[in-house]
Write a structure and sequence with these properties.
Elements: H1 4-10, E1 13-18, H2 24-38, E2 44-47, H3 53-69, E3 74-79, H4 85-97, E4 102-106, H5 124-134, E5 138-143, H6 154-167, E6 170-175, H7 179-191, E7 198-202, H8 210-216, H9 223-258, E8 263-267, H10 273-282
Helix pairs in contact: 4-5, 5-6, 9-10
The structure holds flavin-adenine dinucleotide.
The site of flavin-adenine dinucleotide has 23 residues, from strand 3, strand 4, helix 5, helix 6 and strand 6.
């Protein structure tokens, strides 16, 4: 039984994020990735969540498998959207009954269908409070260095984040590419009196085609970084782009450690090679 809040008090952490597989092929890839990344002895791994009935079960099954069949410590993601309060309590109690004690409490994105149920809880803060009522969880929340896309302005978003993080144990950020985005976020929280750990989220860019996708996922790749990837492409094609993307992520990680980040959280997209290469470049344990 390991609580992430306790791990963060003891030392810096390294963690990996996965999504539940949606097909046999994806399940095979993920099984190999888990085996591979387990060798790096991550502090914990997290499993994303979608609200639909089937995908809900997929998250629970993966978290349960990690809990029971590997040496890894899982953190289950959960969202407010599309759930009643009593459904959320049942899910939380089910996790506690199998010994899972780390939770990422999220608001979730509103359904695209305007007639679909919104859910009884609106913001992640309310889910943090509910999980505290159920009890026994170390609770993480999401932080958005550039501000949440639905926020009217950055200051208000930071105020909401500060209140949310005060109630939770730690935050994990959306991925980003410049060190200043992280230090700006941490400074803004400190100015609001909140000094809880904020784990930076790292997503390496491994191809030029993924650059536009990063912007739609919440964080555009800055012009200077795109230029380095374009130059690498001109010099050596896709393999050189991949190597440059890994170099960019490794440099960011080094900078983050330099400013005292409490850990590094890698968005793996269920593949191990890029994360392993960054871990190796940084000399992280077991790499
Ligand atoms: P919330 O804290 O709920 O805030 C959402 C918006 O409401 C913000 O603009 C905020 O400023 C505003 N707000 C907050 N509180 C108040 C208040 N009291 N009054 C007025 N406004 C308020 N999505 C998934 O569906 N599944 C996942 O597994 C998942 N994992 C994620 C992991 C990480 C690390 C991150 C960064 C995001 C993840 N997301 C996931 C995306 C997340 O669900 C979306 O960002 C969602 O749009 C908002 O949820 P939140 O918890 O980030 O924000």
């Amino acid at each position: 039984m390991v609580k992430i809040a306790d791990l963060l008090k003891a030392s810096t952490t390294v963690s990996f994020e996965f999504f539940p597989p949606r097909s046999d092929e994806e399940a095979t890839t993920l099984a190999a990735t888990l085996k591979d990344l387990e060798l790096l002895h991550p502090s914990f791994v997290s499993v994303t969540y979608r609200g639909g009935a089937e995908s809900r079960q997929r998250t629970f099954d993966l978290v349960s498998m990690i809990q029971n069949e590997t040496t890894l410590t899982p953190m289950a993601h959960l969202i407010c959207v599309a759930h009643t309060r009593s459904e959320l309590i049942s899910i939380l109690e089910e996790y506690r009954s199998i010994g899972v004690e780390n939770l990422m409490a999220l608001g979730g994105d509103p359904p695209s269908d305007p007639d679909a149920p919104r859910g009884e809880l609106r913001y992640a803060t309310e889910l943090v409070a509910l999980a505290r009522e159920v009890g026994g969880f170390s609770i993480g929340v999401a932080a958005h260095p550039a501000g949440h896309p639905r926020s009217a302005n950055l200051e208000e978003d930071r105020d909401h984040l500060a209140a949310k993080l005060e109630a939770a144990d730690f935050a994990v950020t959306q991925f980003f590419f410049s060190l200043e985005e992280y230090t700006g976020l941490v400074d803004d929280l400190e100015r609001r009196g909140v000094t809880k750990p904020v784990l930076p989220g790292i997503m390496p860019v491994t191809s030029l085609s993924s650059v536009p996708r990063m912007a739609t996922m919440g964080s555009p790749v800055p012009e200077w970084a795109v230029q380095r990837l374009v130059d690498a492409d001109a010099a050596g094609g896709p393999a050189a782009v991949r190597a440059e993307g890994i170099a960019l992520a490794s440099e960011l990680c080094t900078g983050l450690m330099g400013v005292g980040a409490p850990g590094l959280h890698f968005y793996t997209l269920n593949r191990s090679s890029a994360t392993r290469e960054i871990a190796h470049a940084l000399g992280l344990s077991g790499a």
